[in-house]
Amino acid sequence: MPKKKRSKKQVPTQSTRDAVIPQEWRLPAELFTMILKEVNSPLALANAGCVCHAFRTEVEPRLYREIHVSLGVPRQLRSLQCALASSPHRASLVHILRVDDDRHAKSGCATFNKILPELVNLTDLQLNVEYCCTQPTLYNSILCTLNKCPFSLTSFACHTTHNKELKQFLDKQTQIESLVARHGHILDMVEWVLSNDALPNLRWLHTYDSFFVRNMQADRRKIAHLDWSLGHTYSGSMIHALSDQIVEFAYRRTFVCSSDYISHPTALFRDHELPHLKHLKVVDQIEEVSNPVIYQFHD
Questions:
Q1: What are the backbone angles phi and psi of residue 81, rounded to the nearest 5°?
Q2: 29: enclosing H helix or E strand
Q3: Phi, psi for residue 272 in degrees, rounded to 5
Q4: Which distant-in-sequence residues (6+ apart) come within 8 Å of 198 by Cβ?
Q5: Amino acid 198: pLDDT
Q6: Which of 224, 222, 225 is nearest to 201 (CA)?
Q7: Is 16 exposed, middle or buried (0-12, 13-18, 19+ CB in 10 A)?
Q8: Three-class secondary structure of residue 19 per DSSP
Q9: Strand pairing report for 124-128 and 96-100
Q10: Contact present, 69 and 78 (Cβ < 8 Å)
Q11: pLDDT tens across 179-206, in order?
Q12: Among 182, 67, 198, residue whose Cα is nearest residue 122
């Protein structure tokens, strides 16, 4: 008798397996959501995405929604770049981006400048790049890239600079509601003033830099929440411009250890009434203090 040829058993592909699984056997989306709520770390979330296509579909929006990168770790940036290149839709899932740096930031800056324009749905960008701010070439390259990006932010944090790329970027960002403007180190260019219609939706401002305060024309904004570092000097123009708007105010005062007199925290309001103020926070920082802080009223 002729021998029967045995056909090799074919291993079904993922799409084939999904096709043959009866619909009633598949997990409902609610169960996927309940399972993923118990996943706490990004690594565990990434591993969950490797279980099956259904898990990956649920995992990726959570995994890529908020990303934290360091310019000083180029391997991390290259890994993110490869992940976005392999599945371009992932770039549209990124809504929050936190960026920090260190003295090795130069090694990752070029890769970061390639990634940033791809994040078309970014709404929250935090540039905590203190080292780059001491390197004009690096920080200016980031600002130049930023100014070309298509996204519309609602929250933004940066270091201030006289570079006009920052001004042009802020002029275009009409949806920003929260802005953190940290003290900048690169102040070697012509000063600029924000356009009258820039930042029309700004509600929350945290700033350390008197340069930025002087040049943003606060009276034309709708700022209701102000967190401000007064430094060693104080100008009441900012408070006067916002006196009828502020509902929450935090101010941080810095005094040198040789200060003979420290005013009472409420002294600020003698010249500027804040009729709608509901929350007040005062932080005093005194370096090398040997005696306790004493608040005094002076008539």
A1: -60, -45
A2: helix 29-37
A3: -135, 105
A4: 170, 171, 173, 174
A5: 87
A6: 222
A7: exposed
A8: helix
A9: parallel
A10: no
A11: 998 887 655 555 678 888 889 999 999 9
A12: 67
Q: How far is CA 268 from CA 17, 120, 265, in A?
A: 70, 43, 7
* pLDDT tops 70 at residue 79: yes
Give me the mean pLDDT over the 249-258 stretch. Answer: 74
- A 10 A CB-CB count for 200 gives 13
Residues contacting residue 31 through CB under 8 Å, at least 6 positions apart: none
CA atoms within 13 A on the CB side of 77: 24
Between CA 253 and CA 265 the distance in angstroms is 9
Burial of 266 (0-12, 13-18, 19+ CB in 10 A): exposed
Q: Give the closest residue to 235 by CA, choosing from 271, 260, 202, 203.
A: 271
Q: Amino acid identity, residue 197?
A: D
**Burial status of residue 43 (CB atoms within 10 A of its CB: 0-12, 13-18, 19 or more):** exposed
Task: Indicate the DSSP class of residue 263.
Answer: B
Predicted TM-score (pTM) of this structure: 0.78
What kind and span of H or E run contains 37? Answer: helix 29-37
Sign (positive or negative) of CA dihedral 58, 157, 43, 39: negative
